[in-house]
């Protein structure tokens, strides 16, 4: 099992390296705002840190640990999360990022995590408000608005 875990850490490091070198021609900072390389570089740095931590943890654990995979309803929850992410990606062009993010957070909280509806609506509204505030109001980015124009 350790070999599989070390391979996963290596894949994370390789992905980070590809992101780092793949975005080398882009500008990190442009004027007073982050450039197109800003976020990919942060993601690459996070992936390197996570891969190193995962490899370190794997090497420090004594003995072999059996692989545990989700079974039954837990396996369905993993599948539903993957489907919700695909739904968000597909619907963001049709409905817009704001509406799709709202629906994604609601679906995830209520159906997958089985949280109460009212706090989930509140959390979804806060999440969408933060997304809108950062990307549209502050950074003045044009996000896909979809059929609702939001």
Explained architecture:
This protein has 150 residues and is an all-alpha fold. It folds into two domains: 2-60; 73-148, no CATH class. Helix content is 70%, strand content 3%. The protein has five helices and two strands. The chain has helices spanning 2-22, 38-60, 73-95, 97-112, 117-138; strands at 29-30, 33-34. The protein has a two-stranded antiparallel ribbon with strand order 1-2. Helix 3 packs antiparallel against helix 4. The longest helix is centred in the first third of the chain and has 23 residues, at 38-60.
Strand content: under 5%
What is the topology, as strand order, of the major beta sheet? 1-2
- In terms of quaternary structure, what is this? single chain
SS element count, helices: 5
Specify the helix fraction band: over 70%
Could you give the count of β-strands? 2
**Average pLDDT for all residues:** 89
Overall domain count:
2
Q: What are the key terms here?
A:
single chain, 150 residues, 2 domains, two-stranded antiparallel ribbon, 5 helices
Briefly, what is this?
By secondary structure, this protein is mostly helical. It has helices at 2-22, 38-60, 73-95, 97-112, 117-138; strands at 29-30, 33-34. Helices cover 70% and strands 3% of the residues.
What topology emerges from the helices and strands here?
Layout lengths: L1 H21 L6 E2 L2 E2 L3 H23 L12 H23 L1 H16 L4 H22 L12
Antiparallel strand pairs: 1-2
Helix pairs in contact: 1-2, 3-4, 4-5
């Amino acid at each position: 099992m350790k070999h599989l875990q070390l391979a996963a850490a290596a894949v994370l490091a390789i992905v980070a390296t590809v992101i780092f070198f793949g975005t080398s021609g882009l500008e990190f900072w442009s004027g007073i705002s982050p450039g197109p390389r800003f976020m990919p570089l942060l993601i690459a740095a996070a992936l390197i840190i996570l891969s190193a931590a995962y490899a370190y943890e794997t090497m420090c654990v004594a003995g072999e640990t059996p692989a545990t995979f989700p079974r039954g309803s837990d396996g369905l929850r993993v599948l539903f999360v993957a489907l919700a992410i695909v739904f968000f990606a597909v619907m963001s062009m049709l409905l817009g990022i704001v509406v799709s993010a709202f629906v994604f957070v609601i679906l995830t909280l209520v159906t997958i995590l089985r949280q109460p509806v009212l706090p989930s609506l509140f959390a979804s509204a806060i999440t969408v408000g933060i997304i809108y505030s950062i990307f549209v109001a502050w950074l003045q980015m044009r996000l896909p608005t979809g059929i609702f124009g939001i």
